[in-house]
Amino acid sequence: MRRASEYLRAMIGVLAVLLAWSAAHGQGNLAGDPNLPVQVGLDQFGAGDETRAGEWAGVRVKLRDSASTSREVLVRLHGLDPDGDVPVTTRDLTLNPGVDQYVWMYVRLPFNFKAGEEIALSVYEAREGGRKPTGEPWFAPGDLLGRATFSPAPAQVNDSQMGLMGVIGPRTLALSGYSERPAAGTLSDAYHVRLHENVKPVPGLLPASLPDSWLGLAQFETIVWAGGEPLEQHEPNKLEPRQAEAVRDYVARGGHLVIILPAVGQVWTNRESNRLKDIMPTVAVQRNENVDPAPYRPLLNVRPTLRYPTKGMTVHTFRVPPDAEPQDAMEILNGPDGRCVVVRRLFGAGAVTLVGLDLNDTAFSQGGALDAEVFWHRVLGWRGKLTPDDQNSAGPNAASIFGTSRTPYYMDGDISTEIAQTGKTAVGVIAGFFVFLAYWLVAGPVGYTVLKARGLQRHAWVGFVGATIVFTALAWGGAAGLRPQRLEARHFTLLDHVYGQPVQRARVWASVFLPGYGERRLSLGVSPGLGPNALTAWDTPGDDESWAKFPDAREYTIDNADPGTLLVPTRATSKHVQGDWAGGPAWKMPIPVPGPDGRPGAITLNPDAWPAGTASVLSGVLSHDLPGPLHDVVIIVFRRQDTLRPHGGDSISAALDQPIVRATAFRVTSEWGPGSANSLDLGIVTGRPAGLAEGGAGTVDLSQVLGDFIPRPPAAYTIAAPIPADRSSRVNRMSGLALLHLLPPPNLQDNTVSQYAALRRATHGWDLSRWATQPSVMVIGHLGGDGADAPSPVPLTVDGEAVPTRGRTVVRWVYPLGTNPPSFPAADVGR
Known about the structure:
13 helices; 831 residues; single chain
């Protein structure tokens, strides 16, 4: 009877969750026009029916035409621009009569976009005579055929601080632990109760309904292809060619695709119908049935309080062919028998990871036997406790201690300051003040005193008018002289490159001064072999006052298939834009210098490195040909993942709070200039000079560097600790964006200060913590900034003319080393 009661309560709970999910993920409010021939319906607002403010959003709409014949139409989705203009994303489409057709449209949502705000979509007859933003011939809108306005529901629009992770399949596989808000939190409290950023899994994605452009997937930092039942609905052959290309572009532009192989019928590596086969790791897969799960426990679950299955499970192991290129198959985790069970392929700026463990087994997917801190940390490169202390050991429960008293620490909060064109504005303000002061004196007391001394005070009105004319001309001429007359831009750019990969990726934020009135064509160009680049108007996060709407607001068209070119209205003012670019190398990044014998250069990890040995950590020499010196350079060496922890071992809670990687960091204390004459000898930089116990002057522990990236809040601030604005703190924030998920978690047991919560609003998807899961060298450095301006690598043009850019570029360069998966514990004390 008791079991029946528990079962009934469980079923009621499941039903309640399903009803809540259904209500939360509804269409919101949709208002269409039933009198028009094309009926419009909203299918998804964002991939998985969720999106994030401040991000590109994919909107999947359903169209049904009542016409008797097929016809060409233009579908137009109206967006928002902080200048008050209306960007209209447009795509052409052939509608067939009486058939439901689904189409993806892409629009960038501003940071202040909230649930309930209306977005308009219209369908027009396509007529000849129009032009694309690039100037190519296109259709022009004719008669209105259909229209609708829709306002998304609250659960469809996440706050700009919220990270998102896509899950293809119905189960989150313990990933839900990465998203836990404070109990008393609100939608603006996007921090994790025990970590920093919340990363919310979005389950239920299906291959057949994925976006057909990488823009619709960009909201996801990671996509986990978990699969599920029915198996055929989750197979990769359900992808249409454009959807497969979208996934491929997503990975090439820095995304991480993690694939859980199904227990039976895996088609990822052995079937030509898999449209993603060309980006799969180059491995031979062996399926092993009825494998004893006990020896694999250090990979999946080490907590004595959690259940663990005893029945045999399916394990796929991966064998790397001897002729495979190193970047095409990198072993991440091995099983207890030494055979690889997690393997990775590097592709562009991103990666594809195959997991051979059957995580969809009921014991792991629903029975609670899978521990994200044990498994997913080692696949994603993240850190921190996802469960309260009382579930790890007998220690006190710190989950609620100070969990709601946190101060947001925006790692990307300096972007607006970096791109602000304040110099000439400040000069203009000062000059205007003195001109007005001089005018007041001449037209007022000083002028009257001079006229009175000469007995001409009766002509004071003539002097007043004359002074007004003179100073008006002076002010007008001064304003014209101070106003920028040429095309220019101030920028902040993130630039990533993985050594050996043919793709660099960059995101640029820029304030572009566009002289003249009318229209100007801004473009990032086209990158051969990759999907479209993307350019959009940008608003400052959290600053609604930046929406300085002009009274002559106008529409401008964005090509849904190529949003990398905009034809925007101009008013001799600056326009803030964000550009996402990827392509062949734009800059000559660091490269190992060839040896004296002419052999190709390389970086090697020394096995006898200190502190255990005496050798330097690395051997090799680096040089670069960037357009200027790098400063504030940090070199991080991820040697290997730490040894797997035994089941039931001591100090589980404390161990899980630390990074899962053995690493050392080095600060280069001087500028690193371009050219072979300024080569960087890593044997010296990473060495330990005689007489020093902890390395050279630039040597620091990884924990110290991570602690610099997010400092401890100053004492005496129990609420809203101040954010440091000094140069060092700003540089550390910008550098720390690369390793946000490795930053030290807040000390929740310290209630003397308000703990910082490291968050992002504009740089989701630009974390590189994944590299902590495999041996690699990461170089982070700054080019320009702080008065030493440098160009941006992004090829931004206006009307075909390259835009002169000045500002700061944060260069993040990664050199993969040989694979070295973590070893199993010598004794599993829990078995």
